[in-house]
C-alpha cells in the first residue's frame, strides 16, 4: 500500500528535511543536505507551491499517469492540492533545490492576483522545464536572493521583497518555457496535427449528441498532455486559445448542418452536443454576428 505524506505547512516540510524554518510561509532547501521524506513508492500531498530544481538524475516522479525521469537542470512546478508519487531509491542522494511558499504569503499582492497566469503549475511532470546552464545560473541567483532575505531579520520590507523575488523567478520561468516551446517547434507541430485530426474526426463522428461538446481536456487527455500545457501550446502556435479554436471549428460544422432544412435549429443544436438550444444560439451569434435562424434565412 502506498504511503501518503501530507505537508500542509512550510514548517512541516522544513522539519522533514531537517531544515531550519526562517519564515513560516516560505523556504529554500538544499536537497543535498538531507535525503528528505520521500521513500520509494510513497506519495506526497502539497498544501503549498513547490518548485524543484534537480541537478542530477535522482529517481522518477509521477503525476497522474505520466512519469518523468529527472535529468540535470530540470524545473518541476507543484501547485497546492497536488499529489505526486516518488520512486527514488533509498540509496540515491538527491541534489538540487526546492523553493516552497504558502498561498498565504502572496495573498493581496500582485503575484497573488496573477498566480493563475503561471499555467505551468498545472503541467504534468513529463512537461517539466529543461534549462540550459546559463538559465540554471539565473535560477540559482533568484533562489540566492530569496534565501538572502530569509536570512535577514524580518522587518516591514521582508514580505514585499521576498514576493517580488519569487515573481521575478516565475517570470524568468515564463521566458524559459517560451524558449522551450520554440526549440520543440517540430514536435509541437506534430502534436497540433494530431489534435486537428482528432477534432475533425470527433466533429464528424455523429457522437456529439450522446457524448457532448468537444472540450480542451478531452483532447489533452487523448494527446497525453495536461490541459494547461496543451492550451498554452495551441495558443502559442495558433494565436488563439484551444477553446476558441474548438469553438470556431464547431461553428463551421454548425453552418454546414444549418443548410439541412429538414432539421430545426434546435435539432442541429442537440446534434452538436448542446444540452440547451439557447446556448447554441448564443455562441453562434457571438462568433458569427447573427443568430442561426438569421444565417439560415440569409443563405
Automatic annotation (TrEMBL):
Keywords per UniProt: DNA-binding, Transcription, Transcription regulation
Q: Does the keyword Lyase apply?
A: no
Molecular function terms from GO = DNA-binding transcription factor activity; sequence-specific DNA binding
SMART domains documented for this protein = HTH_ARAC (SM00342)
InterPro entries linked: Homeodomain-like_sf, HTH_AraC, Tscrpt_reg_AraC-type_HTH
What domain of life does the UniProt record list for this protein's source? Bacteria
Q: Give a yes or no for keyword DNA-binding in this entry.
A: yes
**Domain HTH araC/xylS-type intervals:** 193-298
The name on file for this protein is Helix-turn-helix protein
Amino acid at each position: 500500500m502506498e504511503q501518503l505524506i501530507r505537508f500542509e505547512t512550510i514548517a512541516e516540510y522544513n522539519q522533514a528535511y531537517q531544515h531550519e524554518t526562517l519564515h513560516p510561509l516560505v523556504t529554500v532547501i538544499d536537497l543535498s543536505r538531507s535525503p528528505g521524506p520521500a521513500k520509494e513508492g510513497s506519495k506526497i500531498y502539497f498544501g503549498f507551491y513547490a518548485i524543484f530544481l534537480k541537478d542530477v538524475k535522482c529517481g522518477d516522479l509521477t503525476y497522474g499517469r505520466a512519469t518523468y525521469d529527472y535529468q540535470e537542470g530540470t524545473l518541476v512546478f507543484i501547485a497546492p492540492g497536488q499529489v505526486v508519487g516518488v520512486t527514488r531509491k533509498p540509496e540515491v542522494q538527491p541534489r538540487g533545490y526546492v523553493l516552497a511558499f504558502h498561498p498565504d504569503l502572496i495573498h493581496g499582492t500582485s503575484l497573488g492576483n496573477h498566480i493563475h497566469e503561471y499555467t505551468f503549475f498545472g503541467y504534468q511532470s513529463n512537461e517539466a522545464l529543461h534549462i540550459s546552464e546559463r538559465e540554471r545560473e539565473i535560477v540559482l541567483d533568484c533562489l540566492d536572493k530569496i534565501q538572502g532575505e530569509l536570512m535577514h531579520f524580518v522587518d516591514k520590507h521582508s514580505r514585499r521583497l521576498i514576493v517580488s523575488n519569487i515573481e521575478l523567478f516565475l517570470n524568468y520561468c515564463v521566458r524559459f518555457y517560451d524558449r522551450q516551446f520554440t526549440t520543440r517547434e517540430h514536435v509541437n507541430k506534430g502534436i497540433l496535427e494530431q489534435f486537428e485530426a482528432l477534432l475533425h474526426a470527433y466533429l464528424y463522428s455523429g457522437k456529439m449528441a450522446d457524448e457532448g461538446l468537444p472540450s480542451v481536456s478531452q483532447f489533452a487527455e487523448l494527446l497525453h498532455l495536461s490541459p494547461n500545457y496543451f492550451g498554452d501550446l495551441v495558443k502559442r502556435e495558433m494565436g488563439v486559445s484551444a477553446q476558441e479554436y474548438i469553438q470556431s471549428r464547431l461553428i463551421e460544422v454548425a453552418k454546414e448542418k444549418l443548410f439541412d432544412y429538414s432539421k430545426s435549429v434546435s435539432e442541429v443544436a442537440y446534434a452538436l452536443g448542446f444540452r440547451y438550444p439557447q446556448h447554441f444560439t448564443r455562441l453562434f451569434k457571438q462568433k458569427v454576428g447573427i443568430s442561426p435562424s438569421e444565417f439560415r434565412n440569409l443563405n
